[in-house]
Amino acid sequence: MSTAIRTAPPVVELSAVTKEYPGGVTALRGVNLTIERGELLAIVGPSGSGKSTLLHIVGTLDLPTAGSVRIAGYDAAALSDRKLSALRAQHIGFVFQAFHLVPGMSAQDNVAEGLLYSGLPRAERRKRAGEALERVGLGERLKHRPHELSGGQKQRVAIARAVVGEPDLLLADEPTGALDSASGEAVMELLHELNKEGATIAVITHDTEIAEMLPRRVRIRDGLVVEDAGNPVVASLLREDAR
């Protein structure tokens, strides 16, 4: 008797996604995007290209005007606000340029905040936070508050907070934007390491140098995906569409 092999759905499936805002502004124009588990990619484009809107759509912070969005197999449009919040908490980790750490709170407690809605007791949240900080190379900085950390260390704390719950997807929005070159390179090396450990990571950036450091690059311009380098299947489809 044969046994069917079940495969996990893609982490992200966007189909014909359009986003329009009042005043006739169209930020996304029929975007198709699939992100498989274990991928490391850049979503890259200049200011006004639509990449920030795409971040909000993929992160379920906003819903499209048209098209479908599935995250870890869940149809975002079919979920209530409460269930969308639960989806984000369980399946998506966010890293932002400005870190968004709580000033008077230790690094360990900042990371434990990432498990606030997990239902775990506080002691277990803090234990896992300590392990996440070890994972990003900050095991000696558990009790340090944000003002006692460098910019690169703050971003590592933010990354630890984003991955402590083992989300299906890590969305990093301009993760090196507030850092000097050396700290930025260290953060990108960390993202590569986390990806090798199995994390699915999408880096949203305007910086083409950062994008070129990643194996897949999805370029956005005027609300359209104009290039998907490093993804031969999609690249072939784009060439067919252009004919």
General description of the model:
With 243 residues, the chain is α/β, with parallel strands linked by helices. It has one domain: Rossmann fold, CATH 3.40.50. Helix content is 35%, strand content 25%. The chain is built from eight helices and ten strands. The strands form two sheets. Strands 6-7-8-3-9-10 form a six-stranded mixed beta sheet, sandwiched between helices. α4 crosses α5 and α5 packs parallel to α6. The N terminus is likely disordered.
Q: How many strand units?
A: 10
Ends apart, CA distance between termini = 47 Å
CATH superfamily: P-loop containing nucleotide triphosphate hydrolases
Over the alpha carbons, how many angstroms does the gyration radius reach? Answer: 18 Å
Shape annotation: globular
Q: Provide the domain count.
A: 1
CATH architectural designation: 3-Layer(aba) Sandwich
User: How many helices does DSSP assign?
Assistant: 8
Based on helices, strands and strand pairing, what is the structural class?
alpha/beta
In order across it, which strands form the biggest sheet?
Answer: 6-7-8-3-9-10
CATH class: Alpha Beta
Protein name: ABC transport system ATP-binding protein
Keywords: ATP-binding, Nucleotide-binding, Transport
InterPro entries: AAA+_ATPase, ABC_transporter-like_ATP-bd, ABC_transporter-like_CS, ABC_transpr_LolD-like, MacB-like_ATP-bd, P-loop_NTPase
GO molecular function: ATP binding
